[in-house]
Every structure is written in structure tokens, then in C-alpha cells.
Amino acid sequence: MTALAPALDQLTLDITEEILVRAPLAAAFDALLDELGPSNLGHDDTPMPMRLEAFPGGRWYRDLGEGDGHFWGVVQAIRRPSLLEITGPMMMSFAVASNVQYRLKEVDGGTLITLRHSALGLFPDGYRTPLTTGWKKIFERVRTRAERTNR
Q1: Which of 69, 79, 86, 91 would disulfide-bridge 73, Cβ 3.0–4.6 Å?
Q2: E strands within the chain?
Q3: Which long-range contacts link 112-115 to residues 24+ away (Cβ below 8 Å)?
Q4: CA-to-CA distance for 12 and 103, rounded, in angstroms?
Q5: In the CATH scheme, what is the homologous superfamily, with its name and number, of domain 9-149?
Q6: Which residue has the higher pLDDT, 123 or 74?
Q7: Residue 2: what pLDDT?
Q8: Are the CB atoms for 125 and 102 separated by under 8 Å?
């Protein structure tokens, strides 16, 4: 019996989000690095011991201590304060390749941050919906942190 190959839309993920942060570009970028790194929270708002080495080739990973953890990606490109691009499996422990781009642009009223998460892989059933909600939570925490810092 021959198995049918999954359709392309079942193998891909493409998420685009935008948020206006009422803070200067540098403050928004710093808040983004902090939220992806040491201030990161999990889907249920529990602290996640994340590390982000903010330089080309730097790792983004969950540090559980004593050499244990979970590799999420590598910094593919960084241009302070306008771009952070990470490539890797992200939070997915299955066959997948992901690219996440954060682009920041000064606009009237603050900084516009645009996220694009593209992925190709073998997504288990029920996994896509949770992937679309986590980025929004990070965005809200970035906005809160940057705007609070800017006061």
C-alpha cells in the first residue's frame, strides 16, 4: 500500500504579526532581547530559563542547567536596533526548519515591530494553533516592558 504525501499547506507554517510599541526603537529592541532571553515566560506564564546570545551565530536555547536544555535556534542576522533573525527548530521537537524575523521600524508614535515566522516540517495534529498564540504573548510583554522603560 502506498502512503499519500501530505499537501504543502500541511507541511508549512506562515505567521505574520505586528505591534505598535509606544517607545523609541532602541528601547523596543532591548525589550525584545530581554523577553526572548532572561525574562521569557512559557505558554502558561511560568518563567522559562531562556538564553539568547545576541550576535551572529549566537544560540537561543532553554537552559535547564548542568548541560541540559533545548536548542531553539541560532541568530542568523542581527542589525541593532532594526532586525533580529533566528533560524532553527524553535520550540518544536519534531522534524522542522523555522525562520523567525523581527523587523523594527521607527514610526509616528513609536516603533512598529513585525514578526514573520515561517516553517517547513512534519507538524503533528493539533500543533499549529498553539504556535499562532505564543508570539502574541511575547509581543504584549515586549510592549509593556518597552513602554514602562520609556516613562
Answers
A1: 86
A2: 12-21, 50-52, 59-65, 68-79, 83-88, 96-107, 110-121
A3: 112/18, 112/19, 112/20, 112/21, 113/18, 113/19, 113/21, 113/28, 113/32, 113/139, 113/142, 114/16, 114/17, 114/18, 115/15, 115/16, 115/17, 115/18, 115/139
A4: 21
A5: START domain (3.30.530.20)
A6: 74
A7: 62
A8: no
pLDDT digits (tens, 9 = 90+) for 46-74: 899 999 999 999 999 999 999 999 999 99
C-alpha cell at 55: 550576535
- With H, G, I as helix, E, B as strand and everything else as coil, classify residue 28: helix
How far apart are the C-alpha atoms of 5 and 11, rounded to whole Å?
Answer: 10
The whole model's pTM is what?
Answer: 0.90
Cα 58 to Cα 76, 78, 117, 148, distances in angstroms: 8, 10, 19, 28
Matching residue, cell 515566560: 41
